[in-house]
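Summary of Year 1 activities. Much of the first year was spent building the evaluation harness for sequence design. The harness presents a backbone, in tokenized form, and records the residue chosen at every position. We chose the following record to illustrate the format because it has been used consistently in internal testing since the harness was completed.
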């Protein structure tokens, strides 16, 4: 593969990097202690003998100058940790990291912003943090504000901004730094879909200009469209690094099915009477997708196999965002029953006629239970599939879309009644 930008040179080198965090934090920053302390808690076998959580474990890769690398994997895989290390927000426990050129990062919502300062003041603050001189910020200021589309709110304290407004301002500043290396995390998921498309077009411009980028996203279409290669990360380890489509296939099909099943079996969960072999998301026409618009139909398809005689298993599906369960359903609620013999295979599907979620990234937990009230499960996969929702509605920080209308009525006075009605989807 040839990367844009002519002569190839490694803009990023990640060499056998390990990163550990303490599971219980005290005051101070011992979790980022010097690597020389590592020997006190880690033996020669490299395994943790202390109270450490390994976010990354021996990760190595290079990104050539002008290349766009996508990083994919389930929540907790270590994706954001890689970006924080590249942007020097934190340091590795061991290993070597080299980044050549000016770096601009859009990692955490509101990072680099002071909540009590206005949008205008934060542009100068954030620009300075990213290495711009005041004169340079002066020259770029109007363009930054225009790109963010926050002209009416630029002198408002950012603590009053919605999550979408934070993204607008943060992305606008980040791309106007004219970086050599641009790091982008999943924060774009909270912006409205029109602005997200605008951001993608700007990212494509950076790509065509030969900029180096690392993009973390659950959005399959974005990774396909923008990335030259992809790194599939799981539990802090590299599962695959190479062709983008192959990485996505391994993650979205193999990972949620056979690959994850084998991993769970290695952890002692073999011998289930029923097991989930694959999970996929489909649109209203039955085509695989992992990005939707608010109110579009969506189907969750669970492929399964019986390894023993089973009567009336209960299938469940839960839509989550982070630790919050937004919706849960089981086949028991619909009185669906059946008998399965060893070797029987099948599919269970839940149909969402209208996906009433707003902008964001979501994941789905699925499982098969013995019965509706039993805590015992035949099989379960947390974070089996991930999907992204875009919306034309102003969410105002809400999660769900509820069709509704307003009426305003004046009682008394010359005008007896003044009404206005219309649907609005801000939850």
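For this record, the design step produced the sequence shown next.
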């Amino acid at each position: 593969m040839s990367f844009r930008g002519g002569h190839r040179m490694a803009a990023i080198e990640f060499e056998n990097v390990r990163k550990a965090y303490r599971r219980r934090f005290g005051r101070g920053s011992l979790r980022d202690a010097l690597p020389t302390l590592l020997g006190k808690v880690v033996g020669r076998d490299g395994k943790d003998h202390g109270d450490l959580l390994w976010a990354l474990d021996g990760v190595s890769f290079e990104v050539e100058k002008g290349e766009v690398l996508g990083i994919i994997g389930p929540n907790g895989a270590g994706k954001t940790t890689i970006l924080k290390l590249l942007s020097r927000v934190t340091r590795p426990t061991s290993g070597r990291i080299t980044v050549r050129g000016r770096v601009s990062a859009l990692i955490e919502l509101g990072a680099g912003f002071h909540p009590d300062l206005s949008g205008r003041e934060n542009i100068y603050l954030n620009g300075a943090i990213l290495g711009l001189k005041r004169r340079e910020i002066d020259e770029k200021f109007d363009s930054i504000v225009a790109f963010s589309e926050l002209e009416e709110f630029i002198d408002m304290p950012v603590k009053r901004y919605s999550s979408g407004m934070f993204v607008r301002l943060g992305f606008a500043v980040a791309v106007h730094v004219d970086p050599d290396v641009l790091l982008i995390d999943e924060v774009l998921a909270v912006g409205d879909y029109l602005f997200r498309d605008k951001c993608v077009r700007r990212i494509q411009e950076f790509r065509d200009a030969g900029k180096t980028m690392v993009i973390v996203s659950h959005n399959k279409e974005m990774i396909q469209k923008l990335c030259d290669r992809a790194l599939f990360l799981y539990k802090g380890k590299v599962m695959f690094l190479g062709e983008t489509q192959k990485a996505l296939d391994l993650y979205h099909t193999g990972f949620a099915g056979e690959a994850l099943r084998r991993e769970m079996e290695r952890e002692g969960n073999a011998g289930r009477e029923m097991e989930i072999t694959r999970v996929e998301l489909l649109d209203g026409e039955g085509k695989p997708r992992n990005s939707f618009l608010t109110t579009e139909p969506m189907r969750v398809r669970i492929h399964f196999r019986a390894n023993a005689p089973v009567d009336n298993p209960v299938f469940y599906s839960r839509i989550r965002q982070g630790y919050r369960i937004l919706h849960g359903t089981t086949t028991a609620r619909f009185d669906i029953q059946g008998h399965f013999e060893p070797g029987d295979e099948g599919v269970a599907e839940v149909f969402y006629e209208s996906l009433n979620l707003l902008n964001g990234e979501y994941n789905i937990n699925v499982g098969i239970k013995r019965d509706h009230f039993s805590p015992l499960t035949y099989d379960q996969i947390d974070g089996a599939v991930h999907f992204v929702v875009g919306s034309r509605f102003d969410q105002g920080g809400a999660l769900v879309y509820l069709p509704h209308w307003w009426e305003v009525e004046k009682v008394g006075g010359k005008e007896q009644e003044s009404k206005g009605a219309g649907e609005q989807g801000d939850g």
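Helices lie at 79-86, 119-129, 134-148, 163-176, 193-208, 220-226, 244-269. Quantitative recovery figures across the full test set are reported in Table 2.
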